[in-house]
Amino acid sequence: MKYRWKFLLRFQHIFFFFVFILITYFTENYFLDSYELIWSIILNVIFNIGIYYLVYYYLVPYFYLSNKYPEFILYALICFLVSSLFRILWEPAVFEMDFSPKGYHIGFLYNVYISQGIVILVASFLGITKDKFLIEQDVIELGEEKEQLYLDLLKSKLNPHFLLNTLNNMYANSFTYSEKTSDSILQLSKLLQYIIYDSGKEKISVAQEFSSLKALASLYQLKYNNRLDITLDIPGQEEFDIVEIPPSILLTLFENALKHSAIGEDENSFIRLSCRIEQSELIFKIINSVTQYQRHSVETGYHGLGNDAVIHILEKFYPGCFDFISEPEKNDQYKIILKIKVNG
Fold first, then answer.
1. Which of 87, 145, 228, 310 has the fewest Cβ atoms within 10 angstroms?
2. Containing domain of residue 250, as a range?
């Protein structure tokens, strides 16, 4: 993309000097024969390339773009007067211009003033628009980088401390025969496969997202000997294999529930998760308990980086086609409801 815009900017310069050559040809062929006209065009182009780039690369960046408008106008006017005077003095001296017909001398002066004015005005205009254009491109690129950072945030949000604890538990259980060890390896393998392969894609099926979500829930259950009150109400709908969503969205919301519910630390903590596809709308809902410690966060709404990143990605992929509700529920509970029009 950068190469394309650089080519466009260079093409503007080339096109302008092509037009300038035509202007010089049609304005000076009255005063010069063919041989002298060619040399006049060559010398004028070389001379005005210097004037053009002086305005384009120096006056515009150092004065106009620095909001020094009086200085910019003053120096642009000086360039116009000096370049015009120089042409008026050297062209008749170098070439044998025929000003004998009445009005030709005045016509030559007008031609010089107009052509030099055009050079300076076009150089100023292109220099100003180039800068504004490049700023817009930088804003677009920064926006794209921001979106990529949000995606990377979602992909890297899985708690590495939890994975390390899981590996330590597997190592401890490996000294004695236990079905938990083999099950832990299987669930961890699913989760790592998701992190390494699926999270790098732009979109994955809802079924793939649920596979990683269930693997994460299973690892938590294995860690706490299946004592956690986690309910996953996910029916086996065929649409889950067809409908695709950006990776890590649902998993991130589930991780937030694991974090804020204090599951495994409070015996009364719980998580209720459900998902359906009804009338081309994906409906994902989580209700979780909230501890005394988290109650203040519930009152203000815990919109951390995870939720912000999810909303940003949803706005990119489903503008105007989703609803996201994150609010406290009665009896020290919190709910998150996400609705996406998957065919909207």
1. 145
2. 178-341
Domain check: are 254 and 196 in the same one? Answer: yes
Task: Calculate the alpha carbon distances from 186 to 70, 155, 161, 215, 233 in Å.
Answer: 72, 21, 19, 9, 22
| Same-domain check for residues 143 and 271 | no
Alpha-carbon span 179 to 187, nearest angstrom: 12
Q: What is the pTM of this model?
A: 0.53
Query: How would residue 179 be classed by pLDDT, with cut points 50, 70 and 90?
Result: low
Write the CB contacts of 231 (distance below 8 Å, at least 6 apart in sequence).
Answer: 270, 271, 272, 273
Give yes or no: residues 187 and 314 share one domain.
yes
Angstrom distance (rounded) from CA 142 to CA 154: 18
Torsion of CA 186, 192, 193, 195, to 10 degrees: 150
Tell me whether residue 163 is in a domain.
Answer: no
Instruction: Give the 3-state secondary structure of residue 323.
Output: strand
Q: Which residue in this structure is represented by tokens 């780039």? A: 53
- In angstroms, the Cα distances linking 98 to 30, 53, 210 are 8, 32, 87
**pLDDT level of residue 273 (50, 70, 90 thresholds):** very high
Q: Are residues 17 and 112 in the same domain?
A: yes
148 and 185 part of one domain:
no
Instruction: Find the distance separating the first CA and the last CA of the chain, reported in whole Å.
Output: 31
Same domain, 318 and 243: yes
Which is nearest to 170 in space by CA: 187, 158, 157?
A: 187
Residue 165 lies in a domain: no
Collect all residues with Cβ–Cβ distance below 8 Å to 166 and sequence separation of at least 6. 184, 188, 219, 223
